[in-house]
Recover the amino acids of this structure.
């Protein structure tokens, strides 16, 4: 009998079709068809967007607390808080301290999936509910709050989130912030520092909280390469509306920086434009940024699991240029290179070339679908088609296993 191959299966979600856990199971099913004797370790991951809390809960456990808050257009959303007790990891705590940590997911509160296609309007959608969710995490005793950013329908620079947090904490001036900041990105045009003066008190209230923005992209807040220009269209904006949103968020950012006394460089920091500008809103409160994929990888012990493996299989729905900028695939490949484990990607579609993939450490990439007909079939049966592709990949990467 040939020796079994140790395979780590560590995908992101396949957006719109499979969660990361479902993708991992499908890859494992296909792999076992060819190599039933291989040792498989399933490790679903996330870059901070949809599936962030699920991936962490699967990896580290903890207690899930359901909360009802307003969604992006005001209808109820039902996110959960993942609450854990962990050793302190920041300079605000000694290493041996146990810190109550809350993990939150912006996509569960103001995600694009919560808004029907016909109703998508980033000018009206608000991140208010995320602020209320952060307040609920603090009320549950969290001293460290990690917010996964990505996959949202909002484009309000985090203004709604700030108003919701002030409301949830019952701060003086909270009602005024809600009136000015909670109506969506378009409402921010012309806002002044005097109207958002209560933001300074909000920052002071969170001075002893370790706040982390786990962002999936390094996009900035404003301008030609800012969040409105690059991502408002996929949330339903016309080109003209995207320009108006950029101007409105610029007005809000100027007012918020003046009110809080924070430096102007925050609008240009990588990740400030993540999740429609939620990265900027959190940075106003003193949050530090961590790449979402790296934060999840650390929490679930990915480096140690990679050291065990002989090959790692990762993937996502579409492997494209964005995948090369801090997403799960590149985070896995970087860590795998450190222990000389080859990284193989399986994706719904592969839209980057082998040379680009090799530069980030991906040895090979395999698409589930190439033609229009194959794409249609894969969307109709995503798990089955992913399993089929994984079976074919196993024939190449598990030659030592007994064939079925």
């Amino acid at each position: 009998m040939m020796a079994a191959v140790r395979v780590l299966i560590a995908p992101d979600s396949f957006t719109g079709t499979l969660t990361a856990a479902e993708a991992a199971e499908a890859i494992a099913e296909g792999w076992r068809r060819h190599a039933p004797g291989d040792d498989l370790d399933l490790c679903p991951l996330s870059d901070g967007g949809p599936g962030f809390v699920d991936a962490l809960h699967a990896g580290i456990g903890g207690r899930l607390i359901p909360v009802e808050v307003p969604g992006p257009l005001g209808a109820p959303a039902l996110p959960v808080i993942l609450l854990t007790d962990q050793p302190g990891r920041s300079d605000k705590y000694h290493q041996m301290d146990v810190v109550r940590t809350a993990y939150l997911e912006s996509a569960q509160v103001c995600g694009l999936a919560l808004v029907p296609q016909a109703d998508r309007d980033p000018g009206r959608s608000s991140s208010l509910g995320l602020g209320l969710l952060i307040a609920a995490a603090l009320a549950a005793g969290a001293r460290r709050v990690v917010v996964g950013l990505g996959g949202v329908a909002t484009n309000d620079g985090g203004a709604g989130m700030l108003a919701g947090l002030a409301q949830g904490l019952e701060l003086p001036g909270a009602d005024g912030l809600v009136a000015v900041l909670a109506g969506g990105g378009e409402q921010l045009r012309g806002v002044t520092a005097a109207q958002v003066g209560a933001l300074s008190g909000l920052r002071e209230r969170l001075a002893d909280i370790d706040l982390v923005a786990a962002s999936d992209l390094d996009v900035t807040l404003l301008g030609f390469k800012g969040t409105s220009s690059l991502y408002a269209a996929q949330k339903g904006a016309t080109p003209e509306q995207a320009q108006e949103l950029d101007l409105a968020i610029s007005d809000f950012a100027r007012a918020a920086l003046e009110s809080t006394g924070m430096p102007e460089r925050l609008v240009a920091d990588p990740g400030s434009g993540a999740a429609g500008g939620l990265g900027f809103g959190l940075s106003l409160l003193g949050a530090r940024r961590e790449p979402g994929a790296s934060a999840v990888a650390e929490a679930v012990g990915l480096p140690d699991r990679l050291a065990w493996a002989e090959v790692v299989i990762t993937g996502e729905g579409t492997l494209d240029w964005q995948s090369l900028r801090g997403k799960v695939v590149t985070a896995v490949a970087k860590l795998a290179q450190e222990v000389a484990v080859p990284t193989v990607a399986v994706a719904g579609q592969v839209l980057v070339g082998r040379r680009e993939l090799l530069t980030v450490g991906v040895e090979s990439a395999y698409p589930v679908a190439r033609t229009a007909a194959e794409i249609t079939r894969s969307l109709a049966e995503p798990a089955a088609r992913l399993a089929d592709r994984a079976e074919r990949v196993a024939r190449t990467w598990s030659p030592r296993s007994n064939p079925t």
Observations:
- The two ends are 13 Å apart (CA to CA).
- The CA atoms of residues 80 and 146 lie 13 Å apart.
- The chain has two domains: 6-45+303-397, 52-293.
